[in-house]
Backbone:
């Protein structure tokens, strides 16, 4: 799923290669993209909108006015929605219209409203492709910043042999993926994330745990992976799933298992984000049999667990970044600053349980990032996925400063 969550407009124009647009669309959707198809009137002569809407699970946009009820397709909204626009196949006619700004159909108006990168894959007969007007127009489109996916040489639908075959759909998809990759900020970086609670066994059926859902850590792992990082996600017991090719998940239960898993991968990491709510204490002895109820009081002797963040902080090298979390109920900034220093962190993300909508279990969070130089950066209450993006942005910035 190399295009998960990406918004792509697929423009199709009236070339015989339009039949390949169905295969292309299928490939984009398989890679996880959400695709809005826009067809010119001529494209519909070559391939039916039914095929394209079925494959994209969305109605095809083609006419300015969708129905005779006063509604219309907004090319402006589509242009804003898209992360990338791809016109494949594109004819000499549409190329000419785009050069001249001849916005007489929905595809060209959408093109002119699009703020995203635009890729075009020409497909036409060899003489049309070689014509000075086509070549000149392509040069102009290139000067507008559009990217030309060069047609190949080979047998053409007309029976002639030459340059004009649309680039093969699989290669087009690779180019689209590459375009998103080039914007990723953490390619080649390896990052460890700890997440979730730990369970400390008391006896075979009981444990000491906490309310951590793992949502924040998982959101951070996903955002790091979306930025191209290779992520090792060491997680305590949570009911979350993760499906990203860049994330390697390691399931653990106790603090000591989490420490062992984290320590063994840390030397090869560029950064580590300590998001887990690790137990501070564990039962000194785990009884092998279920503890029986007694009439009088009972107590469990606890011993301190080892601090994972502090352990990694003590072996951290200069080119490694260590990020911690602090969940505080009082004297937030002072306590967070103390942890930052004690654990040898590079920055600490503070969330206060006093803030409504922040903390365990909920989907929102409100954070303050405290840096080593004691600078505090406050953020608004946001969705955890957006908070993750802010934290990852800070990681990108700090890795650049190491
Ligand atoms: O000291 P406190 O538990 O509040 O510190 C929180 C930070 O330290 C978090 O980043 C948490 O993941 C990390 N931590 C840890 N190992 C522990 C306790 C806390 O990594 N045993």
Residues:
């Amino acid at each position: 799923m190399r295009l998960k969550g990406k918004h792509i407009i697929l423009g199709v124009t009236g070339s015989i290669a339009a039949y390949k647009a169905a295969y292309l669309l299928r490939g984009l959707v398989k890679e996880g993209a959400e695709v809005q198809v826009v067809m010119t009137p001529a494209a519909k002569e070559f391939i039916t909108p039914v095929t394209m809407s079925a494959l994209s699970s969305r109605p095809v946009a083609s006419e300015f006015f969708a129905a005779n009820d006063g509604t219309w397709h907004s090319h402006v909204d589509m242009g804003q929605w898209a992360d990338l626009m791809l016109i494949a196949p594109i004819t000499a006619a549409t190329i000419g219209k785009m050069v001249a700004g001849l916005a007489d159909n929905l595809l060209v108006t959408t093109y002119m409203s699009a703020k995203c990168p635009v890729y075009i894959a020409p497909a036409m007969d060899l003489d049309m492709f070689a014509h000075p007007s086509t070549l000149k127009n392509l040069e102009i489109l290139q000067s507008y910043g559009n990217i030309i996916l060069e047609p190949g040489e080979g047998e053409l639908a007309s029976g002639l042999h030459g340059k004009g075959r649309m680039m093969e759909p699989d290669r087009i998809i690779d180019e689209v993926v590459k375009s998103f990759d080039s914007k990723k900020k953490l390619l080649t970086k390896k990052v460890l994330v700890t997440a979730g609670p730990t369970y400390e066994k008391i006896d075979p059926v009981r444990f000491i745990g906490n309310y951590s859902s793992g949502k924040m850590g998982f959101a951070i792992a996903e955002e790091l992976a979306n930025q191209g990082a290779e992520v090792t996600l060491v997680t305590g017991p949570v009911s979350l799933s993760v499906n990203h090719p860049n994330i390697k998940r390691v399931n653990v239960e106790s603090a000591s298992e989490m420490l062992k898993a984290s320590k063994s991968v840390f030397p090869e990491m560029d950064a580590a984000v300590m998001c887990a709510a690790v137990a501070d204490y564990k039962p000194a002895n785990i009884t092998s049999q279920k503890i029986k109820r007694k009439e009088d009081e009972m107590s469990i002797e606890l011993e301190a667990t080892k601090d994972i963040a502090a352990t990694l902080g003590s072996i951290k090298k200069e080119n490694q970044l260590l990020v911690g979390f602090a969940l505080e109920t009082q004297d937030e900034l002072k306590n967070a600053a103390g942890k930052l220093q004690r654990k040898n962190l590079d920055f600490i993300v503070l969330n206060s349980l006093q803030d409504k909508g922040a903390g365990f279990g909920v989907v929102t969070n409100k954070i303050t990032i405290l840096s080593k130089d004691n600078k505090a950066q406050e953020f608004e209450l946001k969705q955890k996925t957006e908070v993750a993006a802010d934290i990852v942005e800070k990681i990108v910035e700090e890795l650049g400063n190491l």
About this structure: The radius of gyration is 28 Å.
